[in-house]
């Protein structure tokens, strides 16, 4: 309601100032629910950075049953936040999504194991049960397992892969030996549940050389032919990065802004503040996609053994056109 | 308007006209009548598929939103081993076992309730309560209790099928008329004799009603339960993950298998009902 009132007032002021200058509408589809992982966008909206760029941005939270690519392809959003593995897989499936900016330079993906299972190094996964999320989030794990030469058929020489829900219960109840966890989210849920760092062995995907780029901004390729859309996205990326910069400098306040925007009321202050702190470590200096990191992601995804995530090197999957103008 | 859409619309119009004509025919021989009864819905179904295919191709709808039937069929044929493994995991294990235990226990508890007024007051409200539990709330708890494999899905199916069976059987057992029961008493029939010779046969239509309702409920329950944690096989697993991978043709193939399995299961129960309750007026008539 507060947001509605604010946008109404903002709309009224804009109308009052100049009839001709109606703000451009942009709809952003997030990959996941409202949380500090997306603080930059909420800050930019809250602090009026979008307004300064003459944008009227609607932020749509995601969730466990929302595939951002489908929303984008169906015309429900102009731009989406997605992980590169699922974006590139979608591109190969015929949805031409293009990365226009990459605010996250580092990956926060980890595999957390209980120490008592005897796992000390990734090679010890043999015969163990690993829990992961699906919905496109399983790709980095599959690349890692094929790099380790471990089949995921549940045999003695391989690993048993389980689809887990978006919570850490399987690890707490020892139904899985290891589960995927983000440094900024599930890891702290495990700690909050009573396990200590001494009980856990944490493998960072980045250190294992299977890091793939996470939260980037993607649009549909054909829309980039429209100069007006490009201009709109340039302003959007510029204002979003200003939001991210502010969130990095004021993590606690940014977490509070996220909480204000959480319509579900499911997030807690302690968790969001901690999350913002961890998110800040993953952010790049600007949103320009690093060519080397892109190359590494593609190479990781291509080595999927019998079932690679993508079968051929994508072409035109990213553009620096927007970030060059915005930064 | 392009040619694909125009073609699909023309096919639709033609099929409509044909069906209009066929449904007005009144053949004499029963065989012809039966053939006609199958032909009309078949033509209607084929028309739907043609219009679907034409619309997807004609309007150039992205395959990640709605794949054409031809792509779904291609996937169905090429992914038989995966579909079969999923079918085994979900239907042959979770659904059938859960269905048997859920219906069986519902039936036995109903007889116990019928025998004892104490249970009637205590258990029936509890059954009501269990039936009101939302499946998406129960499923994660079952996964927590019974692990990731099929037993947790069977448990969800049991919870879902138990109550319809219980209520229907209790009602069925009460449906024999007072005059029939009096007659049994004048014959000096025992409780057991009355139960097997009079009351259960009278309850059969109610029991089969529950079995039919449960045949579809069980499949829904097992598939939805798989959304909340599974080993990497099963129909619900496949549907929920392939959506995320943009393989919508696979999702539809899995839905087709589920629809087919559900219909066959229902049909089998309905046929058994016909054989068992042949005396009932609803079946005697034809």
UniProtKB/TrEMBL annotation, chain A:
Reaction(s) the record says it catalyses: N(6)-(pyridoxal phosphate)-L-lysyl-[4-amino-5-hydroxymethyl-2-methylpyrimidine phosphate synthase] + L-histidyl-[4-amino-5-hydroxymethyl-2-methylpyrimidine phosphate synthase] + 2 Fe(3+) + 4 H2O = L-lysyl-[4-amino-5-hydroxymethyl-2-methylpyrimidine phosphate synthase] + (2S)-2-amino-5-hydroxy-4-oxopentanoyl-[4-amino-5-hydroxymethyl-2-methylpyrimidine phosphate synthase] + 4-amino-2-methyl-5-(phosphooxymethyl)pyrimidine + 3-oxopropanoate + 2 Fe(2+) + 2 H(+)
Keywords of this entry: Iron, Metal-binding, Pyridoxal phosphate, Signal, Thiamine biosynthesis, Transferase
Gene3D superfamilies, per the entry: Periplasmic binding protein-like II
UniProt pathway: Cofactor biosynthesis; thiamine diphosphate biosynthesis
InterPro entries linked: NMT1/THI5, SsuA/THI5
SsuA/THI5-like domain span: 36-254
Subunit record text: Homodimer.
Protein name per Swiss-Prot or TrEMBL: Thiamine pyrimidine synthase
Gene: thiY_2
Automatic annotation (TrEMBL), chain B:
One Pfam family in the UniProt entry: BPD_transp_1
Main location class: membrane
Keywords tagged on the record: Cell membrane, Membrane, Transmembrane, Transmembrane helix, Transport
InterPro entries attached to this UniProt entry: MetI-like (IPR000515), MetI-like_sf (IPR035906)
Domain of life the protein comes from: Bacteria
Domain ABC transmembrane type-1 stretches: 106-276
Database matches in PANTHER family: ABC TRANSPORTER PERMEASE PROTEIN MJ0413-RELATED, ALKANE SULFONATE ABC TRANSPORTER-RELATED, MEMBRANE SUBUNIT
Protein name: Aliphatic sulfonates transport permease protein SsuC
Native species: Nitratireductor thuwali
Primary gene name: ssuC_5
């Amino acid at each position: 309601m507060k947001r509605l009132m604010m946008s109404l007032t903002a709309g009224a002021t804009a109308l009052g100032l100049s009839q001709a200058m109606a703000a451009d509408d942009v709809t952003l589809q997030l990959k996941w629910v409202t949380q500090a992982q997306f603080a930059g966008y909420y800050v930019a909206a809250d602090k009026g950075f979008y307004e300064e760029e003459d944008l009227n941005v609607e932020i749509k939270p995601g969730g466990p049953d929302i595939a951002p690519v489908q929303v984008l392809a169906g015309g429900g959003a102009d731009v989406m936040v997605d992980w590169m593995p699922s974006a590139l897989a979608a591109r190969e499936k015929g949805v031409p999504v293009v990365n226009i900016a990459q605010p996250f330079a580092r990956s926060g993906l980890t595999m957390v194991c209980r120490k008592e299972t005897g796992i000390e190094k990734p090679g010890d996964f043999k015969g163990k049960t690993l829990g992961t999320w699906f919905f496109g989030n399983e790709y980095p794990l599959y690349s890692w397992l094929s790099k380790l030469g471990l089949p995921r058929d549940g045999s003695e020489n391989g690993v048993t892969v389980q689809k887990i829900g978006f919570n850490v219960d399987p690890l707490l109840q020892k139904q899985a030996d290891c589960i995927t966890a983000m440094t900024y989210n599930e890891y702290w849920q495990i700690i909050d549940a009573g396990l200590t760092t001494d009980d856990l062995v944490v493998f960072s995907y980045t250190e294992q050389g299977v890091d793939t780029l996470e939260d980037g901004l993607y649009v549909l390729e054909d829309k980039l032919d429209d100069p007006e859309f490009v201009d709109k996205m340039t302003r959007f990326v510029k204002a979003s990065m200003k939001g991210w910069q502010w969130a990095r400098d004021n993590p606690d306040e940014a977490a509070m802004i996220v909480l204000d925007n959480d319509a579900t009321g499911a997030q807690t202050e302690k968790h969001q503040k901690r999350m913002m702190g961890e998110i800040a470590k993953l952010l790049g200096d600007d949103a320009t996609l690093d060519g080397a990191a892109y190359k590494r992601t593609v190479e990781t995804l291509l080595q999927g053994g019998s079932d690679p995530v993508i079968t051929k090197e994508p072409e035109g999957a990213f553009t620096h056109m927007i970030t060059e103008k915005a930064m | 308007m392009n040619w694909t859409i125009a073609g699909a619309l023309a096919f639709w119009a033609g099929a409509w006209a044909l069906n209009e004509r066929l449904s007005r025919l009144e053949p004499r021989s029963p065989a012809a009548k039966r053939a006609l009864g199958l032909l009309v819905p078949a033509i209607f179904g084929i028309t739907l598929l043609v219009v679907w295919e034409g619309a997807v191709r004609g309007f150039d709808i992205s395959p990640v939103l709605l794949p054409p039937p031809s792509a779904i069929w291609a996937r169905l044929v090429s992914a038989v081993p995966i579909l079969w493994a999923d079918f085994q995991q979900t239907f042959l294990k979770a659904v059938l076992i859960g269905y048997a235990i859920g219906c069986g226990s519902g039936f036995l508890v109903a007889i116990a309730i019928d025998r004892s007024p104490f249970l009637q007051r205590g258990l029936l409200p509890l059954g009501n309560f269990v039936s009101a539990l939302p499946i998406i709330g129960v499923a994660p708890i079952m996964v927590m209790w019974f692990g990731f494999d099929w037993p947790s899905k069977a448990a969800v199916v049991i919870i879902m099928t138990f109550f319809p069976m219980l209520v229907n059987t209790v009602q069925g057992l009460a449906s024999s008329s007072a005059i029939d029961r009096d007659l049994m008493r004048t014959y000096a029939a025992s409780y057991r004799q009355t139960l097997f010779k009079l009351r259960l046969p009278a309850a059969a239509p109610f029991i089969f009603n529950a079995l039919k309702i449960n045949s579809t409920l069980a499949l829904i329950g097992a598939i939805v339960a798989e959304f909340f944690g599974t080993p990497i096989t099963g129909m619900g697993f496949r549907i929920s993950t392939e959506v995320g991978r943009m393989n919508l043709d696979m999702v539809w193939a899995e839905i087709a298998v589920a629809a087919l399995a559900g219909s066959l299961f229902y049909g089998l129960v309905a046929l058994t009902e016909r054989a068992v309750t042949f005396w009932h007026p609803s079946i005697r008539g034809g």
